[in-house]
Structure formats: structure tokens, C-alpha cells
Amino acid sequence: MSEATAYDVEAVRADFPILSTRVGDHPLVYLDSANTSQKPQVVIDAVADHYAHHNANVARAMHKLGLESTQAYEGGRERIAKFIGANRPEEVVALTNASEALNLCAYTLGSRLGPGDEVVISVMEHHSNLVPWQLACQRSGATLRWFDITDEGRLDLEKAAREGLINEHTKVVSVALASNVLGTVNPISLIAEQAHAVGAVMVVDASQAVPQMPIDVSALGADLLAFTGHKMVGPTGIGILWGRYDLLAELPPFLGGGEMIEIVKMDHSTYAEPPHRFEAGTPPIAQMVGLAAAADYLDGIGMDAIAAHERDLADYALEGLSGVKGLRILGPEEAVDRTGTISFSIEGVHPHDAMSIMDSRGVAVRGGHHCARPLHERLGLQSSLRASGYLYTTRREIDALVDAVEYARDFFTGRMSVGAGSGRRQS
Predict the structure, then answer these.
(1) Is 142 left (phi over 0), alpha (psi -120 to 50) or beta?
(2) Which of 1, 193, 195, 347 sits most deeply, having the most CB atoms within 10 A of its CB?
(3) What is the mean pLDDT of the chain?
(4) What are phi and psi of 132, to 5 degrees?
(5) pLDDT on residue 60
(6) In this protein, which residues make up the domain named Aminotransferase class V (predicted)?
(7) Helices then strands (H, E): number in the chain?
(8) Backbone angles phi and psi of 416, in degrees to 5
(9) pLDDT computed for residue 414 by the predictor
(10) Among candidate residues 296, 288, 275, 277, the one with its CA nearest the CA of residue 238
(11) pLDDT at residue 4 greater than cutoff 60
């Protein structure tokens, strides 16, 4: 099949210098974008230009460079607010990563919890949206509960309803918009309605969704939403917490230090209004500049177009991998309400072994439990392989993935004859 004609993936690939890398005799096939995305030259240039020509701390210096840096940082905040449909820039908090954002949610909302209260998550959560809530419940005496999944890898909403998972004791519901293992896109608006009906706060981990699809936080139903910059072609070292301004204004500080304060006395302090209340110390200034450039880049292509490309890749990859004997796909096997992230296991082959031999053929995938160990235990697996493309991934790279999977299977299960060469093998 040919590439989707409405999307010029080759023109996109030309913007990413690293994609010209070779691994031995093989071209790099980078299928680990759910872990971190590659960066276009415009983002690399934006970060380098800031350090070379505008570097200074923000809000502390009134000299020329200080003003330029502050304007760039706050301009980046405005750009990200626009990118996700926030009502105002003050709803956007800049942190180091999505993990810090989710820890902030658990710490501040956890200060409201007590014995008899309940926090609801799901079994498919990344550890960053699991461990902070465990800690919050341990500190407060609240109870942690979770959505199970169906055999298809979707949230088991019927079981949750039967068991009264979200009820009058629920104070917080925190669920991923898209699973980093299964690729499942969860019905956040529906869950948010249920949470709000009992007065609970709805927290969303959107790290695997914001890079892949259009997001409008004002319409999603979330009260707080976290995502990270490095998965959306932006720099490492920056994560975003969006929150309804009225809720942010109610929450206590997470970290203490410079810039998050209003007045400091020796015996007490008062705190700045959001978002600065949650941005103690020097913030990720150059990273915000790079993230704004990333938002410009993604919007220049069009998030609808990127989402359509992702669906096309998912459909093509699911079709190709489903024909590999001995391979088990985790999660939905149709490209409906799912991203292009596909995890799988190969019968008789450890994921780390398969990952290594696939890497020798230039195919970069991830092997492990992908920071979702409870989900793998629920699926009866110790670990899995994960292939995740992005806006720069081509169908021929999916073909290379299928070839590499078959090669690894045959190599480790003894099906390959001595001196077997490369290329698509018959299953």
C-alpha cells in the first residue's frame, strides 16, 4: 500500500536531522517515540538561539537580556495555552516533566484527603500516575481503587459501574487519556461526568495524547491535566500542568522557594497567585522557548493531520503484526480509539533479547514493562516489546519492523537456518 496521499511524511522527515542516522548497514528505524520523540531542526535552533543571544533568568533582572528572557518564557506559556485550548495563560504551569506535574496533583489534592475518602485510578496507569497516589493515600489514610480492563484492553466501565467504583466517597479520579502500553484512548469526558457528579476532581495524564491528537482542555472535562514536552517534538526538562484557574487558586504550594512567594517573613510567608505559586526557583526557560517552537511546528502541520497519519500507521502496523505467528498484540487490535503505540510479546522470546537483535538491524523499539508493571501483571506478562511511531514514521518503516520481529522470532526459537539473510520471511 502507498503512503496516505494527504500527508507528506517525507517532507516532515527532512526536518529531523537524526533520522538520517544509520545503524551499521541499516537506516535507523526509530519506533520509540512514546518514550521520547525526535526533534525538528526548528526546535533545536530555538533552544540554541535562546542560549546564544537571550540567556538570562526570568522575573529577576530588569536589564535587556532579563526582559527578553522573561518575554520569551511568558510568551511560551501563552503559546502552550493556545495549543491546548486553555482559557488563559495563567492556567499553564511549567514544571520539569509530567511526573512532577502528577506529583503536584497528588500532593496538593492529597492534603484534602482523609480516612474514608477514595482515589480512583486505573490498572493501565504509568507509574507516574500510580505511585504519587499511593503515597497520598498512605499519608492521608484514604483508599486507592482502580478501573480494571477488558480482554480487549479497554477500561471495564461495566464492571466499574457494577462495583460502584466512583461513588460518594470518591474525591479524586486520575486516569490516562491514552495508555502508553495498550494505545487505548480512554473516554475521559464520560469518566469526568461521573467524577463531577459526586464532587470529585478529575485529573488526566495526557502525556501520550497531547503529541498525537488535537486536545481542547476547555471541552475535555478535566480539572487538571499533565503532559510532557519531550514527547511532542519539544525539549526534555519541561512538563506542563494545566488546571482550571479557580482550582489552582485553591491549591497549596507544592515546593517552596524563590518566585512562588508574595511576602516572606521569618515566621510565615504568603504565596503568589497561579501559575507562579507552583514554579519555585528558576523555571525551565530555554525549554519553554523550545516547547513553544514545538507547538508552532505541530500546528504548522496540523494536529488533525498528525492524528490521521497516526491512525493510518496504527491500522497498517496492526495488520502487519497480526500476521506474525507466535506474536500477541496487547490492547485493541483495531485502530479505533487507540493511538499508534503497539505493545506485543513473542512466544518463547524475551523482550530484551528481541529488542537487542532488532536494534542490530536498525529497528529501535522498547523492551520492558514500560513503567506499567501492574498492567503487565494483569496481562500475565513480565514485560513486552513496544513499537511507537509518530508524525515522521513511514509505512516502509512498519515493514522493517515486521521483518525484524520475524527475524528475532526465528533467531531465538531456532527456526532460522544457518546463514539466513535479511528480508521479510514467511510466517
Answers:
(1) beta
(2) 195
(3) 95
(4) -60, -35
(5) 74
(6) 29-401
(7) 14, 17
(8) -90, 130
(9) 82
(10) 288
(11) no
Q: Which residues are catalytic?
A: 371
Q: According to the 3-state scheme, what is the secondary structure of 233-273?
A: CCCCCCEEEEECHHHHHHCCCCCCCCCCEEEECCCCEEECC
Say if residues 29 and 362 touch (Cβ distance below 8 Å).
yes
- Give the whole-angstrom CA distance, residue 74 versus residue 89: 8
> In whole angstroms, how far apart are CA 233 and each of 46, 144, 336?
12, 34, 24
Residue 97, phi then psi, degrees to nearest 5: -170, 175
Residue indicated by cell numbers 498484540:
329
Q: Are 298 and 306 in contact (CB under 8 A)?
A: yes
Q: At what angle do helices 131-140 and 98-110 cross, to 10 degrees?
A: 20
For 192-237, the pLDDT digits (tens) are: 999 999 999 999 999 999 999 999 999 999 999 999 999 999 999 9
Task: Return d(Cα 169, Cα 115) in angstroms, integer.
Answer: 10
> What secondary structure does DSSP assign to 123-135, as a single string?
TT--GGGTHHHHH
For residue 369, give the H/E element and its range: none
Q: DSSP 3-state assignment of 396?
A: helix
The reply to whether omega before 253 is within 30° of 0 (cis) is: no
Q: Please, how many CA atoms are within 13 Å of residue 177, restricted to the half-sphere of its CB?
A: 25
80-114 pLDDT, tens per residue?
999 999 999 999 999 999 999 999 999 999 999 99
Written in H, E and C, the secondary structure of 134-167 is: HHHHHHHCCEEEEECECCCCCECHHHHHHHCCCC
353-371: average pLDDT: 97
pLDDT tier, 339 (very low <50, low <70, confident <90, very high otherwise): very high
Over residues 251-256, the mean pLDDT reads 96
In sequence order, the 6+-apart residues with CB closer than 8 A to the CB of 294 are 39, 40, 43, 229, 232, 233, 234, 235
Q: Which residues contact 345 (CB under 8 A, 6 or more apart)?
A: 327, 328, 330, 351, 381, 384, 385
Does residue 117 register a pLDDT over 60? Answer: yes
Phi, psi of 49 (to 5 degrees): -65, -40
CB contact burial 403-424 (16+ within 10 A = b; e otherwise): bbbbbbbbbbeeebeeeeeeee
CB atoms within 10 A of CB 256: 12
Which contiguous run of DSSP H or E holds residue 324? Answer: none
Cβ atoms of residues 177 and 339 within 8 Å: no
